[in-house]
Design a protein that fits this description.
mainly alpha, Four Helix Bundle (Hemerythrin (Met), subunit A), two-stranded antiparallel sheet, 7 helices, rod-shaped
Length: about 200
């Protein structure tokens, strides 16, 4: 027979630090209750914040440069290629303009030389009309504006020679004709020299 004091100890419910839920029985299965979550002390923001010292600026720049070295090289190559392409296109456009103006100048110079020969040697007042010569010499002066300085100087000298000597083309003397012919030849040589320098 159990003593009264021991019987009271057996009947006394156990004390747990936290209330324990009752077990759940479903059918013939016994499902244990989930464990009781224990409370975790909450720390303040000031306690959990850690102090991080920033890296020096020089170190940061060097590290970024090392990490992005390939990107920097690619950017430099792209800029260099774009600059070269723009320069090449501009240079090609200038050469094309100079070449076209040179061809027009050579054509006008040839026509003007033919007019001088018709006027002086054949005394042809129709095909060797000095008024037509004024049209040629003005055309040559206009096209020379798109050419380099040597051609512009020769075209200006041709205009002066024609202005001073065109009235003597019909004469038997060769002085006026030679002055105009020399100016034509000098202008033609300057145009041909510029064409040879194009590339």
């Amino acid at each position: 027979m159990i003593p009264m004091d021991d019987e009271r100890k057996l009947l006394r419910p156990r004390s747990y630090p936290h209330p324990r839920p009752d077990p759940v029985v479903r059918g013939n299965r016994y499902i244990s209750p989930p464990p009781v979550a224990r409370s975790v002390p909450i720390r303040s923001v000031s306690e959990s914040r850690t102090m991080v010292r920033p890296a020096p600026i020089g170190t940061t720049l060097r590290s970024q440069f090392r990490e992005n070295f390939i990107a920097f090289v690619s950017l430099a190559v792209a800029l260099a290629g774009f600059s070269f392409t723009a320069w090449r296109m501009e240079h090609s456009e200038t050469n094309l303009t100079t070449r076209q103006a040179a061809f027009q100048l050579l054509t006008a110079l040839g026509q003007m030389q033919e007019l001088v020969y018709l006027a002086h040697y054949d005394h042809d007042a129709v095909r060797g009309n000095p008024r037509i010569g004024w049209v040629y010499v003005m055309t040559i002066d206009d096209f020379s504006a798109t050419m380099p300085a040597p051609v512009q100087a020769r075209a200006a000298a041709l205009l002066v020679a024609w202005r001073d000597h065109w009235e003597g083309l019909m004469d038997t003397r060769d002085a006026d004709t030679d002055e105009i012919s020399d100016a034509l030849e000098a202008c033609r040589s300057a145009v041909v020299a510029e064409l040879r320098e194009l590339h």
